[in-house]
# Entry
Amino acid sequence: MKKLQLSSLVFVSMLLLLNSCQKPDQEIVPTKESEVGVSNKTAKQSLLPCPQQVFALVLGGNGGSPIPAGYLSYICKVDLCTNPVGFSFISQLKINNVAVTDVTGICDNPGIVDFGYAVTGINSNFPKKLLRFQISTGISNIVNATTDALQDIEYYPPTNLYVAIKEGTSQLMKVAVPSGICTAFSPVGPTSQYNGLTVVGNKLQAISGNTTLICNPTSGDIFEYPATGGNYTGKYSYKNLAANSPWTMKELGFYFDDCCQKRWVVGSSNGFLSHNLNITPCILPNPNFLINTKPIYDFMSKK
# Structure
């Protein structure tokens, strides 16, 4: 009997001991060490690659708009998250092995891996065309003729809308894909021509690189349009200093980066890549130089 009682006491003691060992695992109390662990996890998450890739349309010459004849057309990859910014050649645009000249804008072909759309200007060897191209090879096909010569085409996902600038003007056009039919998206803008177009949230912004209407004497007037179309509803300034005028002169690519936090990015046909964190008129900062590249005429992002 005594042996039985002794065995029972030993068994109960072992249960109590096991229970006391399990409690710390069941009742986790936050400590400074655990908070540091959470912070490190958040930091690692913030360093993950951006969900989209950024590509640039590079032409083999420095010109205004309409683009002069004969400029070869290339696709390059831009990594805005690196320092210095990464920039590498990907492909040359060709149709049936014929080099395409004067491509004036590129945008995403949504949902199709490795493909984008492009438009050509009036002086291209394939003028006023909507193209579909493979990013990695540059192999291109004509989708349709466009009813206007276009530049800087952009895709706005929520409305499945394509908007471009009518080449050499400040007229924004809605582009029907794949028919190529162009209709006015907004009234003619307040400057003689727009040089770049980008999507910022649920708005579109067009930049006039050389003009100083909004923050004289700094250049880069920006006009904001609702995604539904109509007249502009806001105006801002890239505030490019006169001493740095080549950053925004002539034709240029315009891109809003909300992943690497470069914000408003401009690629000039003169080969200068710059960015600005704040486009509020006449309030610092002015744009900052990033890298000296090839002549960039447009950007596109691809998820």
